[in-house]
Design brief:
Pfam families: Oxidored_FMN. Its cofactor is FMN. InterPro entries: Aldolase_TIM, OxRdtase_FMN_N, YqjM-like. This is NADH:flavin oxidoreductase/NADH oxidase N-terminal domain-containing protein. With 427 residues, this protein is of the alpha/beta class. The protein has one domain: Aldolase class I (TIM Barrel). It is built from 15 helices and 13 strands. Strand 11, helix 12 and strand 12 form a beta-alpha-beta unit. The radius of gyration is 23 Å and the shape is globular. The relative contact order is 0.13. The structure holds flavin mononucleotide. Flavin mononucleotide (FMN) binds next to strand 4 and helix 14.
Length: 427
Amino acid sequence: MLPIHRILTSTARPAVSRAMRTSRLPISSLNTTFAKAFTTSQISRQEAFRIKPSVAPGTSTGKDTPLLFQPFNVKDLTIANRLVVAPMCMYSSKDGYMTDFHLVHLGSFAINGAGLVLAEATAVDPRGRISPADTGIWSDNHIPAIKRVADFVHSQGSKFGIQLAHAGRKASVNAPYNSEAFSETEYWRDDVVGPSGGPESRWDEKHAVPRALTVSEIQDVVKAFGAAAARAAKAGADTVEIQSVHGYLIHQFLSPVSNQRTDQYGGSLENRARLMLEVIKEVRANFPAEKPIFMRISGSDCVEHLDIPSWDIEQTVQVSKWAKEAGVDVLHLSSAGNTPLQKVAYAPGYQVHYAERVRKEVPGLPVIAVGSITGGKQAQEILESGKADLIAGARTFLKQPSFVLEAARELGVEVAYAPQYSLAKTL
Ligand SMILES: Cc1cc2nc3c(=O)[nH]c(=O)nc-3n(C[C@H](O)[C@H](O)[C@H](O)COP(=O)(O)O)c2cc1C
């Protein structure tokens, strides 16, 4: 084999570029000559599938593998390591469709060894989008674009899940960075819904005044989650994650901060949790039985400094037990997002204690810890000390898409790389 410097500086060049260098034809006509036999989709399929890793990137190939790099099994799903890309809204869609951006963004995490890639909060109902730029899964038309991403993630040996979401009273706001791309008619500010309605129920001045969902509309929401789960399965998702967190619709029902209903969906914990449990059952009924269901839930509204009824870890523990009975296989613990009055104590691993508490009190329900987990040793310590079963990262992966490979390096674990990236091991 050639030494590394020879490989990197080799004069051998592909035939196409040699021909292009020597030909007198203009480049544009050469491009046509060499590419005319392929459509764009044929080319992308070739690139995606021609070179498949024989072992999924991020899989331990050595001995004495620490927990972080041991596989994780739940139902029919086996994840090569314990590192999960957390769902992240990218506000890069129109009419709900995943785009090339999603393929590259999510695909790169798979190339770089993430065990499981969870796609962003994806609306089960157009009214449930945070902004007009959110991804959606309310129509069968959305399936092919999602499948394209799922297929690519699978081609790298990684697993693909999608977060099913409804933004409730936090819907119909500007996308953070491309609001100019949307006209006023693409928002639905007069039809923003939540558990409770009126000016006192709105999130803040920038959000629309919501109206309370009727009981029959709540049933429609439940069905929309189920239909979305069925579409996710058709798109090849290995799991779906129910979004019950960060102050979006299901969390709005759970928390007394946002739920002032007096019917069977408000008041007692049983009533506030009713929507969540109905959604879990509907998703379970519409998603293949052998595939696991994940759910993301808040450990707290983070308003302990105020003397008001709110969502806390005690209620989280109770509903986690109910969620398990209703069909949730993995619980993902985050916090906050349900009121602007919150005070979040940001620090490394600031939400791990929620995962730890649920793991201790709900035996048999694996949990994911997330939130400022940025190093391999930090992640391994969380697992080793029994605080969580899996580790997720959002900004962690944005900052360092190869976080998994770097975590392996930090822990001295030998892992597989994508064949195309294998030279990176030599640095
Ligand atoms: C850009 C961005 C988008 C996010 N979008 C979502 C989302 O769609 N669904 C969700 O449950 N959480 C979302 N979150 C929260 C993350 O999944 C994660 O819980 C949080 O950022 C903490 O992890 P980190 O410290 O690694 O960023 C988002 C976070 C970021 C940074």
